[in-house]
Each structure stands twice: as structure tokens, then as C-alpha cells.
Amino acid sequence: MAEVEPAVARSAELEAEILAAPSNFRVLTGDRPTGPLHLGHYFGTLQNRVRLQNLGVDTILVIADYQVLTDRDVADDLPGHVRELVLDYLAVGIDPARSTVFTHSALPALNQLLLPFLSLVTVPELQRNPTVKDEIAHSHQGSVSGLMFTYPVHQAADILFCKANLVPVGRDQLPHLELTRAVARRFNDRYGRVFPEPEALLSSAPSLLGTDGRKMSKSRGNAIALRASADETARLLKGAKTDSERVITYEPQRRPEVSSLVLLAALCRGVDPREIAEEAGAGGGGTLKRIVTDAVNDHFAPIRRRRAEFAGDPALVPELLRDGNLRAGAAAEATLAQVREAMSTVY
Ligand code: TRP
User: Fold this and answer.
1) pLDDT tens column, 16-64
2) Residue from 173, 179, 219 to probe ligand 1 pocket by mutation (most atoms less than 8 Å from CB)
3) 103 secondary structure, DSSP code
4) b vs e for 168-201, b when ≥16 Cβ sit within 10 Å of the residue's Cβ?
5) 230-311: which CATH number, 3.30.420.10, 1.10.240.10, 1.20.120.450, 3.30.70.1290?
6) Which residues line ligand 1 (CB under 6 A)?
7) Closest ligand 1 atom to Cα of 64
8) What is the pLDDT of residues 178-189, one digit of tens each?
9) What residue's CA is closest to ligand 1, atom 13?
């Protein structure tokens, strides 16, 4: 993708601007509630969200429950998945006093933005979206729904309803952010300035492979969940794919599976991957897996403990969502009022 390099460079500049003036930024990012979050999410995005929150950036997290329906007919157990997602957020340090967590289906005003926004994009533009194309290729459905093609526009509403100016995303989401910027620009050109043009903040975290050596993903069944027990973690890592070379080294290009395990241990312990590789050395895959298992279980023990405590309070998640939906709903109402004013649809 052509736009990755400039986004990487711009992200470094943005990091400096955030440190200098965190209160100039409002972050919007989020997740589809399709299952528990895993170590890939943690090191890829969750840690970064907590860091931004703790720096004083206004942080808003969308639980994209409608987006679950892009590649399946029915979303199974949404309430359960939403609850687990919120518990994951709380466990890693998302603080509801500082961050807002909401479900986009609960905000009528956010969803109404979809209609004017759809008028600002063309069908070929939606058909060209590389992320959507990829998702269609991996879809569980026989034919593609209208929501699949238009969800990036709905995602623009997720971002623009609260006038976020910063969106921490993975590279796969860059096309969506480009579309969001286009929607904001076109709306402003056509009706007068209402929206900021949000920028992508790419994380510098390298991505982790799953236990089968492919990208870690809940749908592939190769992920280690944040909430997994120590025993389950040990079992999953024991079955992780390695290679036939005896001595452990850190060579991500040549030895992706072994190197991803080395990296996982290094991220948990906060050290350089080469240090882990040296430690495992001639001990081979068995030693490496023991090191990784201990590192993961040590790092996540307090997070998992907190998670279990939060899970023991059944009122916590509903209260948090009620509060988050109220706050986000008020922002959506205010923005929709401006949009209706700008479009001269106030009667
Ligand atoms: N599409 C994102 C994902 O699949 C989730 C998401 C929905 C999102 N709305 C968003 C991310 C707005 C960033 C900004 O993970």
C-alpha cells in the first residue's frame, strides 16, 4: 500500500506533538466484539491506548457491535462478547474515569450520520477498498451484504461523531482512515466546516504470530487470550510451531515462528529479543517455550487477577456502558445538530 510510508513518518511527528500537548488530542479507536482479546491485541494496540490515556489524551473506545455483522448473518452472543471486551479493557488499565467506552448501536445520532456520509462516497470507491476486499475473501457468507461495502463509512461516523483527531490503528485500517478523511473533507467543502480531518497513529509494535506461525487472530484459533489461565497458556505455547534448528536465534525473516516466540518473551520482560535468544540458546525449542511461558504468565498475572476481580462484580460492566453511552450519545447529538444546521435540514 502506497500510503504506509508517509503514515509511519507522520506518526513519529505526532508522537512528539502528543508528548508536548496531550490535551490537543482526542483519540477514537475500538474493536469488534467477536471474542476475547489476545496477546496480539495487547502488544499491538491495548498497551498503546492505555499509554495515551495516561498521558492525558482524551480517549474514546468504540465497541463496534454493528460491524460484527459485516461477515456473518447473525452475531452470536453479543452481550457476552461485549462484556468480555469491557473486562479486557479494564484489566489492562483502561480507566472509565478518564476514557469513554461505548457501543455504537446505542447512539442513534451517530448512526444517522451514516446517511449524509454515504452521499459523499462513490460505489467504485467502496468497491476498491483493499481491507473490505480482503474481508470479503475471508467471509463466512455466500454473498456480500450492503453493510460489508458500507461499513467503512459507518466507521467514519464512529470517528467523526466525536470529532476525534487521532486514530491509533493497524496498517490494515489505513484505507478506512483515508476514507474517513475524505468524508470529513468533502462534507466540509460542501456544507461548511464541521469536522476535523483525523490522522492515523501507527503503532511501532511489531506484530505477533499465533501458535501456528500465522498472524495471531481469534478466528484462526491460534491466539492466546489475555484472560487465559497460566495452565492454558502453558498448554498453548507447548503446542506452538517452531523449526528444526537446535540453537535459538532471533531472525524474524528467516525463522518467523521461533522469532515470534522470542519476541513475545522479550515484550513481556521488557528486554531486547536477542537477550532472550541467547538465554534459550542451545537449549532449543523446549527451553524457549519454558522461558516464553514464564514470561507471559508473570507479565499477565496481575492483569488476569484484576480481570477476575472485575468479573466478580456483575453491575460493573452495565454501569460502565450506561455511562459511556450517555457521554458519547451527548457528543453525537451535538455533532448531528451541527450537521443538520450545516445541511439546512432544521425545520
Ligand atoms: N474496524 C475495526 C476492527 O475491525 C474496529 C473499529 C470500528 C474501529 N470502528 C472504528 C477502529 C473506528 C478505529 C476507529 O478492529
Assistant:
1) 999 999 999 999 999 999 999 999 999 999 999 999 999 999 999 999 9
2) 173
3) E
4) bbbbebbbbbbbbbebbeebeeebeebbbebbbb
5) 1.10.240.10
6) 28-32, 62, 64, 67, 155, 158-159, 167, 169
7) 7
8) 999 999 999 999
9) 29
